[in-house]
Every structure is written in structure tokens, then in C-alpha cells.
Amino acid sequence: MRRGGKKSGSRAAALQSRESMPGKQQILDSIGALAKRLGHSPSLVEFVAHTGTCKHSVFRLFPKWNEAVRAAGLEPRRLYVRPRDEELLEDWGEAVRRKRGLPTRSAYRIEGRYYARTLEKRFGGWTSLPDAFRKFAQGKGKWADVLALLPTTLTEKERRRLKRGASTSIPWSKAAHASLKDRVTYGNPLDFPWLRHEPVNEQGVVLLFGMLAKDLGYIIEAAQHGFPDCEAKRRIGPERWQRVRIEFEFESRNFRDHGHASSGCDVIVCWRHNWDECPENIEVVELSSVIKSLASSED
Length: 299
What we know:
alpha/beta; 3 domains; 15 helices; 5 strands; 12% strand; disordered N terminus
């Protein structure tokens, strides 16, 4: 009887949770109201931060954030300029030239200037790029050396290798190498313009936030070595700003480990939020989630 009661209670809680989620019109009304407050079409990050609505509530009703913005009668904001086809193909051609052969998807993520997925979406898949480039470069002397490196047809084995992005079948655990003490250590390749790898320390978090601050609605006033790290103003409405104190951490729980007083900080900016007991008076901006939100809001 006890087990049955627990299951029944769980089903009731789940049903209540679903009923409490905002409906489509509520979300559209919230987007419109927030746009009036901010003076522009909100990004997904701004919407979640200002309304407290979780991303799940949005994506269960709208496949993409920009679709929700359009449904609210607004034009989505574009954080980055859409590159032209020619720019994408030229950059891919330069990667071929440097590699002296076809770059795998993962190799291009490290060497290229653009998102690998952008090229895939634009030209019909990673293995379609040699044909797309051949049509683009035909008759252009500056690309003669690159055209000579392109195979006329790809074997099935080559297609699998390029899609997989792997140049070896050896498992990663066996292929790992010893770290050299006199070399820089990088994070995973990051599909983000102008920053090629994920942050691996607090300095990387500071740099990435500086790149995103304007799009997140912040103006940086001052930075210092002492606590808190940064003083900034953030936009709370049309022609309205408020001052906030920011502490940068690689992981949010480092704030606790460093012994900082919660009363001296308004916002923790981190790469990874892993502090479940974070005080309610402190807002956490997790940059890894911001990057994912920007990717999911693309058309």
C-alpha cells in the first residue's frame, strides 16, 4: 500500500508540475512584455534570467527560440553576422591548404574560423564540402593548389572518417599522452567565434564574459584583484540600469571554497554551475549554458 501511495503521489506531483507550466500564449505575452522593458527582442538567456521561466517550458512548445520570438510578433536579434557562402568555402579551402588534404570535422573545429555545423547546414553535410568547394573555386587560379588536393570521389571509408572526425581507431584512453610542463593546456574545442577553446580557469571565464557582456545586457565599470572582481551595470528596462557586483569563478562552488561573503556579491559568473547550495540572493550566470543557448537559438 505504501508503494502504491508513493507512485500515486509522484503521478499527482508530475501532473501538477505540468499544469503549472506556462502555456503558449503566456510565453508569447511574456516575450512581448520583456521586449517592451528591454527595448529590443530578448534573447533566450535574457528571457530566462528576467522571467524565471525555464528553457524546458519554452522548448516543449517551440522547437527554436527564434520561432517563439517571431510568434510573438517580433524580429529575432542576431548576435553574430551571418557569413557569406564564399567566406565559409574560402576558410575551408585554407584549412585544406594547411592540412595538405581534407580536414576532418574535428580538425576544422580547431583550425577553422567558423562553426563546423554552419558549413554542414549550408552545404548539405561535411562530406559534401569538396564538391561545393570545387564548384566555387572552378576557374579561380588562387585555388588551383587546393583543387589538386581534392579527390574526385570519396570512398565510403573516407566518408566515414570525415564524418566521424577521427584519424585513428585507437581508443582515447589508450591514445592519451603525457602532459608537457612547459606547454599551455587547452580546453575542449569550442564552437564559438573568436574563442577556439573552452575556458579551463577563471581567467578564461573573465575573457569570455567580456566578449558576451554587451549581448547579456551588462556594461563593465571596473575590475580589480580584490573581492568582488568586477563592478558593472546591467540593463533592467528601457533607459534603466542598475549597479551589480560580480565575482568570477571557474566553477560556482569555488566562491564557497574561497570563503567569500555572500553579502558582498550580486552575481557569480562561472563556466560551470555546480553549487546546489548557492545563496538565493546571488544570481549565477553559467557561461557554458549561455553558449548552448546561443547555439539552440540559431535558425
